[in-house]
Amino acid sequence: MRQRRHTWQTLFTTxxxxxxxxxxxxxxxxxxxxxxxxxxxxxxxxxGPINYVSxxxxxxxxxxxxxxxxxxxxxxxxxxxxxxxxxxxQRQQLIQNAQIKSDTFSVLNLDVVWTSEFAANKWIxxxxxxxxxxxxxxxxxxxxxxxxxxxxxxxxxxxxxxFYFRSDLLTAAGIAAPPKTWDEMKAACTKILALPxxxxxxxxxxxxxxxxxxxxxxxxxxxxxxxxxxxxxGKPTVNTAEAKKGxxxxxxxxxxxxxxSDAITYLEEQGRRAFQDGKLVFMRNWPFLHASLSAxxxxxxxxxxxxxxxxxxxxxxxxxxxxxRSLAVSPFTPNKATALEFVKFFTSEEQAQKRLALSSRAxxxxxLFADPAVVAKRPFFPTLLTSLNNAQPRPKVVQYxxxxxxxxxxxxxAITGAKDTDTALNDMxxxxxxxxx
Length: 437
Prior knowledge:
Layout: E1 5-7, H1 12-27, H2 36-39, E2 50-54, H3 61-72, E3 78-82, H4 87-99, E4 107-111, H5 115-120, H6 139-144, E5 146-147, E6 150-151, E7 154-159, E8 162-165, H7 167-172, H8 182-192, E9 202-205, H9 212-224, H10 241-255, H11 268-276, E10 280-285, H12 290-294, E11 307-309, E12 323-329, H13 336-346, H14 349-355, H15 372-377, H16 381-389, H17 400-415, H18 421-435
Parallel strand pairs: 1-3, 2-3, 2-4, 9-10
Antiparallel strand pairs: 4-12, 5-6, 7-12, 8-10, 8-11
Helix pairs in contact: 9-10, 9-17, 17-18
C-alpha cells in the first residue's frame, strides 16, 4: 500500500484550533507550563504513530523508506505531511507549529541553514551521541547538523558545488587541465574565446540574482579567498582583506566582462540553460543538473563535451558551500522514542543506498561515493566527494533569514556598482553585527 501523504493545508484547521486554545488559556489568566517534553531534552520516551513533515520528494524515494518502516511497525506508523515547495513557506510552517508547541509535527526535515535557529529556540531536541553513525558520515554534514557541540539533526542528504567546463574547447585551445584558480580560468578563457568555434560565447557564470543563491556564491568566493563570513561564535568577519578579495572576484567578473551581463539575473536554472545551450565555457552549479547536461535526446548541445572539477579559488581549488538536509525530532511530539528510532532508520546507510536507486540526491555516507555501481550511474560522485570534504556551511547563526537578506543586499549592491566593495562590506559588517547581538 502506498504511503498516505497529507499536505500542510489539510492541517490548517487543526493548527488554528490549537492556536485558539493556547490564546484562550492565556486570556483566562493561566500561566503557561513548559511541556514535560521541553523540560527533559534527553528523554526519548513514548511509542506510537508519528508524523514526518518534509518538502515534496518528487523521486518517491522517501515514500519507499516510510512504506518499509510502516510494514515493520504497524503500531508506530509514520504519516508523511508534505509542505509547500517554497523553502521560505516550509520554514514558516515549521516555525508556526513550534511556536504554539503543537504535537502535529514529530520528525522535521530541515534545511541545513535552519539548524542553529531551530536549536537555539529549542524547537528541536539534541540527539543522543550514538543516535547516528557520524564516524561514517562526511564531516561537513555532521558539522552542519551540530549546534554548540550538540548533534541536533541526523544528516539525511547533502550537496556541494561543482565546476562544469567545456572539455572539448579546452582541448581545442591546447589546455591540458581545467583551471584550479580564478586567474587560470581567466587565462583559459582568453585562449578559448579566441577560437572560431567559441564565437559569441561568454567565459563563466555562477548565480548572482538577489536571492539565496547569491549568499551561496558570495560565501564561496570569500571562503575560496581564505576568508569567512562569520567566525565559530557567529560573529561577522566580512570587514577583512580576504572577504574583500572574495567579493572583488565577483565584482571584477562583471566589470571585466568575464561573466555575461545577464548573469546578474541568474539562478541555478538560468545558468544551466546557458551552459546547456553552448553559451558558456565554465559554470558553477549543483550536481543535480548533470543529467540534463548529459541528455542525448537533442536537448543538450554539450552532451559528451563537458566535464567537472572542483570550483576555483584564489590560490588553488576553492571552497564549496554545503547544501542538504537533516532530520530532527520535535520536543512537542508525545512519541519521541518512535520518532528517534524512525530517524535512525531513515538516515541509515542501508536506506541511503536504497534511495540511490530512485533519487539523485547525494548521500551523507562517504563509502557510497566509491561504490562502483553508484559511480557507474553517477560518474560525478568522486569529484563531488572532494567538494564536500572541503565544504563549509553557510553562516551558522540563529537569525539566518535576516542574515542572508543582509548579505544579498550588500553583495548585490557591490556587483551592480551601486556601492564600492569597501562600503558594501562595511555596511554588511554593521548589519550582521547588529543581528549577532
